[in-house]
Design goal:
Blueprint lengths: L1 H16 L7 E5 L5 E5 L10 H11 L3 H6 L5 H34 L16 H40 L7 E9 L6 E9 L2
Helix pairs in contact: 2-5, 4-5
Length: about 200
């Protein structure tokens, strides 16, 4: 049973060891008739200022850093988050002003929209104070959400510009390893992770 499972594992490892990725290459014939192969890299060349540019562009105009990075699908998400935060801020500010004006009118002894002509009080004075506190708190939360989305927009542009330059090539390989131990007479099985500089 133990040998059967070991045999299955080895067959799986051997089947994956022959798999290789296709590379883009250009064959050039040298001076002496020897062909040399130039491998084209599929990542962008390193640009140390690209992350700073992307962050700066997003700070100037939200979504511009994403356009600089080529991620156009993120622009509506950034503007949707900013528009939602601004909408709720303005809506809560309008409600806060409505209850604040009613409270000022009631303190001054005038009629307000929550105290009708039939002397029936729809909202008490304490209710007006509590409503102002709730809408003031909601205004502050909406403002924090809007600023948070703006900052996340800048961070996203910066991080994506860093990751677009990340070097992913075939110098990193994972291969099965078989080592014969001469002291014990047994074979050691394992995986090796090779990184070529």
């Amino acid at each position: 049973m133990k040998n059967r499972s070991l045999l299955c594992i080895l067959s799986v490892l051997f089947s994956f060891s022959g798999i290789q990725a296709q590379t883009d290459s250009l064959s050039i014939q040298g001076k002496e008739g020897i062909e040399t192969e130039i491998v084209e890299k599929d990542y962008e060349p390193y640009n140390a200022l690209a992350p700073a540019k992307a962050a700066f562009y997003s700070a100037i105009l939200p979504g511009l850093g994403q356009a600089y990075n080529g991620s156009y699908w993120k622009i509506p998400i950034a503007y949707g988050g900013l528009a939602t935060g601004i909408y709720y801020y303005l809506e809560n500010d309008k409600q806060y002003s409505k209850y604040r004006d009613a409270y000022k009118s009631r303190i001054a002894g005038r009629e307000d929209q929550f105290n009708g002509k039939d002397e029936r009080v729809f909202v008490s004075t304490d209710g007006l104070i509590r409503a102002q506190e709730v809408y003031q708190k909601n205004k502050e939360i909406s403002l924090l959400v809007t600023v948070g989305v703006y900052i996340l927009n800048i961070i996203d542009a910066n991080v994506e510009a860093h990751l677009r330059q990340f070097n992913v090539d075939e110098d990193l390989t994972l291969q099965p390893n078989f080592d014969f131990n001469s002291l014990t007479g047994k074979t050691n099985y394992g995986l090796t992770l090779n990184f070529n500089f």
